[in-house]
Amino acid sequence: MGRTSTRTGCENSYREGGQARISAQLIRVSDQTHLWAQNYQRELHDLLQMENELGTVIAQQVQGNLTPQQKVDLSKNRSVDPEAYDLYLKGRFYYNQPNPDAMKQSVGYFQQAMAKDPYFPLAYVGLADAYNIGNLFGAYSADESLPKAKMAATKALALDSSLAEAHAALAMEMSHYEFDFSGAQKEFLRAIELNSNFAIAQVQYSLSCLAPMGLMAEAVAENKKALELDPLSLTINALMATTYMLAGDYEKSDQQYRHTIAMDPNFPLGHLYFSFLLKITGRYDEGITENEKGEVLSGSSPEVAAAKAASIREALHKGGEKAAWQKDLELLMEKVDRPPKDCRHRCFPLCT
């Protein structure tokens, strides 16, 4: 049975006093046909309930079948402090920027959200996610982020054991820090069971669990599912290319990276990850250039990025690729807390 792709959007949203109003619409991607539109107005503390209503109506409009568990979850009447929700959204904004300073800012906002509403589970999920990812981008050492990520994910689950995001956050911690891949697999599968449309969890399962376990065919298949769910996600597109690379399909990886960059030339991770493929496939000079672009887009000054690129290029010209790899590693070690030499991750995005 075929799948018809649709996209939703919030055309207008604003606040007035203690209320929020959202204008939502549903559009068929293939021909841009306008399928449905609706206005919603609720008290600010009912924002999560508004999200649930939107999810239910959209599922009905696209004739989606909700599982009994999803129907129960959507029927839950959760409330949240409006200021805590604002702080959570600000945390997510900075979380989505791949640089150490932004990661630290996201942690600060999630902590403020928790302080404002200690019973808001998504704030704890956000904090766990930020510590899980923050270590990868050099914002925190593994020793610092491991216990904090686990504590936050565990607290989120204590507040709401049916929250898919909390299970995924705990799975990331178990995979990244504890190397408990079988335990992580159980948590990822539970997250996906609770929310079959949770595309990011499927990507995380692919790269943080299946790939380190050496199950590359399964990892590729899982990432493809995520891409079907969210074909416009830059992150998912870039990580699809990374999965192909780890599986040894360099041609598909190259095509997918170029597709991702064409979608948005200013997306830093597309350039950063593509640079690694270029280097391992004998195009080291091109890889240096691509990495420089990614670093500037990630927030590095053009001067600093250019100086780094020049030093690696000099090593390449003097001593070949081995010397360039060594210089690359030396520069990375200066600012990133590296995993141990026997790190069992066999995955570039997880360990650099």
In short:
With 352 residues, the protein is mainly alpha-helical.
Q: What does it look like?
A:
This protein is mainly alpha-helical and 352 residues long. It has a domain at 1-76. The protein has 16 helices and 3 strands. It has helices at residues 47-61, 68-75, 82-95, 100-116, 121-134, 142-159, 164-176, 181-194, 199-210, 216-229, 234-246, 250-263, 268-280, 284-297, 302-335, 348-351, and strands spanning 6-16, 19-28, 34-43. A 3-stranded antiparallel beta sheet has the order 1-2-3, covered by helices on one side. A hairpin with a 5-residue loop joins strand 2 (19-28) and strand 3 (34-43). The longest helix is centred in the last third of the chain and has 34 residues, at 302-335. The protein is globular and about 65 Å long. The chain starts with 5 loop residues before the first strand and ends with a helix. The relative contact order is 0.06. Mean pLDDT is 83; it is low at 1-14 and 337-352.
